[in-house]
């Protein structure tokens, strides 16, 4: 009986071979190419015919050839580091088989992620002493985010109120003025010379390699504006093969839930198109991009029409020494929706604001020269010029033109594997010509130093110190010294502890000091030459725990104590003025759990933040900071499909600008209407080849339950909308 | 385990979907008030302005004298008037100020020596308080209802018997 079983087993095995490899004595070759989903050749990919020892590795152009294949039907396994393994099933290989193109998706699950923003040089993510998040590019594309700030709403610990970003409650809402989060492109700050805001639309989303988010004060390395954290956008490396990327999208807003709000009987739409060409010739790499994006908006007089141009040139003198230049130009024509008319007309502006619009031109230019002198010593020069201009047409014509120049020289020195020093100096200058900010000039200078020591087993210690001098026009100059100490201790291979204590500071922007204009309803903004810099002392304790290699838990406990915190306030005369709050304190916890349920196929992310943000002088909550926030993301990518669900929740905001809402001003009628936030988005995507060209198509349904909420008083957030986007690389 | 967790997550998401969030509120329109101010005694010299003024809350400290608390100002009352009848819908001195429904706890007649309207506490003194039973130490509240005019908000100003002054 046993012999019969053994024989039948062998017979079955033989039959399998006969049916899968139909040998007729002839052998053939299989040629093909392995490319990434961005049409770039994948070098060194292993292409193996399953169950055989036949295979090949792709060459520098991604080409491969497997010879001496008996004619038959095979499963082809294709794998490469950094890409999701792919199996092409039941592929018939014979004399008629044509060369095949195999597309591999870049993996988002990496065991050793690298980050450059925490210390201004490359570090492993697990060596960092601060809480960090890395956002891969597919996070943006699959959800069809049109502007960068949309994406930030999905990052645990990051909050966006209209266009104002805040990390762990660092900012409330002040129309983007005086950012407390430093947003940078390749390490070069992207804030305007007049009001210090970040214009998200100027960021070229198609050229993003990854985004690094440093949570918590980073003034010891980045100076003013980084008091709440840093968001650094790393652009893509130069491609090996010329590639053209084309993306287009079309979307439509659904009807509002309440018929009373249906102010336009037509469906409101948004659409856009982008074409980007990248390539390289000898040592020169280049990227050119043009994007047009229009949005009718779900609200009246909230439209925009925008054009974005992006150029990037890179010249490699040697593999380690390069010059990088990039330039972004944005033209924008948008309606100026300030507040709703009232809660019965929630998608319609106040009568006096209807028809207001803003025309703007912005140009952001950066130049980076990187030089590696030897294995121990490298340096970098970063220069930038940011010109912003806007003309607002409304109650009165407001205009401002600002030129912001910045230069930085930094050096990295690592005399041994145990010691790394980063040091640098920077200088900046801005001039403003405006009828609302006056015509101030701004001068800033800073010098910083950071040392990292790895001399004790499992322990990494960093010490940083920065000096800043800032002078705004005729006001007396301000000095600030911001030290920081950080520790990272690997208790085991699975458990990493981190902690830091440091100080931060932020100088007021010219807009916060000098703005003098009317905002409507008899209310104006009043200048405050007595405004002084705010300072902070912050500490954080965090831990990261890896469980069974596919579950990653991150926990952080943090506190930031602010002195002279700058916030807009209502004066006795009923004007808005930026003032210094004597004391404010933000405490909280943050947990993020990432669970690769099926590696590179099914991933669950859950983030939770608890924020206790108090205005200590009045013993009330700080404005526009939700106490609880939850972020849940489910991503399922079987084969060429992509499915995703994003859910985010904020508890009801406790404090708002009550004086703007309550009688007698009642500038925002029904402005006290606010609710907890529950938003659910759904994504469905499909990756495919069309004429051997990698293509993607995504259907997004955002705010699928059409939930109505506000991030700022009198401003209903986007209602349910659907969009279809397509991308091709050729 | 995974299935249960996903079911719980989906259930939570769908439970929240029952709520549509912010809803349109009931229409609220400003209201008004009317009445008569009666003057007794001799008007002081040098008075440039006399206004009936409505405050949301009493002035218990100097800081309470600021615009958001200052809810309404009636047109200036002519010098040496014996009586002055008013209706806030007609006699509004600051057009942007509207009386929204609610309770207003301090309604007074105040005078100033400044020719232009001033928002400085030091420039004003109170000569009459809206009160019940003529007890000027106990200000009465003015109740404004949506779209209605509250009548008989009468104030007696006796220059020989001035009311207590709020903190300077």
- CATH class type of the largest domain in chain A: Mainly Beta
Percent strand of chain A equals over 45%
Name the poorly predicted regions of chain A.
11-23
Overall residue-averaged pLDDT value of chain B? 86
Q: What is the highest CATH level, the class of chain B?
A: Mainly Beta
Number of domains of chain A: 3
Low-confidence stretches of chain B: none
**Count of folded domains of chain B:** 1
Order of helices and strands of chain B: HEEEEEEEEEE
Query: What is the overall shape of chain B?
Result: elongated
Assembly state (oligomeric): heterodimer
Number of strands of chain B: 10
Distance between the termini of chain B: 69 Å
Q: Roughly how many Å is the radius of gyration of chain A?
A: 28 Å
Helix share of residues of chain B? under 10%
N-C termini distance of chain A: 61 Å
Comma- or semicolon-separated keywords:
heterodimer, A: 730 residues, mainly beta, Immunoglobulin-like, Ferric Hydroxamate Uptake Protein, Chain A, domain 1, Maltoporin, Chain A, 3 domains, 6 helices, B: 168 residues, four-stranded mixed sheet, 1 helix, 9% helix, 30% strand, elongated
Give the arrangement of secondary structure elements.
The complex is a heterodimer of chains A (730) and B (168).
Chain A: H1 2-20, E1 27-36, E2 46-49, E3 55-57, E4 63-70, E5 72-79, E6 86-93, E7 100-104, E8 114-115, E9 123-124, E10 131-135, H2 137-141, H3 148-152, E11 158-161, E12 164-167, E13 181-185, E14 188-189, E15 208-215, H4 219-222, E16 229-235, E17 243-253, E18 269-281, E19 284-295, E20 304-318, E21 321-335, E22 340-342, E23 345-349, E24 357-372, E25 377-393, E26 397-416, E27 419-434, E28 441-453, E29 459-472, E30 478-490, E31 495-506, H5 510-514, E32 517-520, E33 523-526, E34 534-547, E35 551-570, E36 576-598, E37 602-615, E38 620-621, E39 628-636, E40 641-650, H6 658-661, E41 677-690, E42 693-702, E43 710-712, E44 715-716, E45 721-729
Parallel strand pairs in A: 1-7, 13-16, 33-36
Antiparallel strand pairs in A: 1-4, 2-3, 2-5, 5-6, 8-9, 10-15, 11-12, 13-14, 15-16, 17-18, 17-45, 18-19, 19-20, 20-21, 21-24, 22-23, 24-25, 25-26, 26-27, 27-28, 28-29, 29-30, 30-31, 31-34, 32-33, 34-35, 35-36, 36-37, 37-38, 37-39, 39-40, 40-41, 41-42, 42-45, 43-44
Chain B: H1 2-16, E1 32-40, E2 49-55, E3 70-73, E4 83-87, E5 102-104, E6 106-112, E7 124-129, E8 142-144, E9 149-150, E10 155-158
Parallel strand pairs in B: 1-9, 1-10
Antiparallel strand pairs in B: 1-4, 2-3, 2-6, 5-8, 6-7
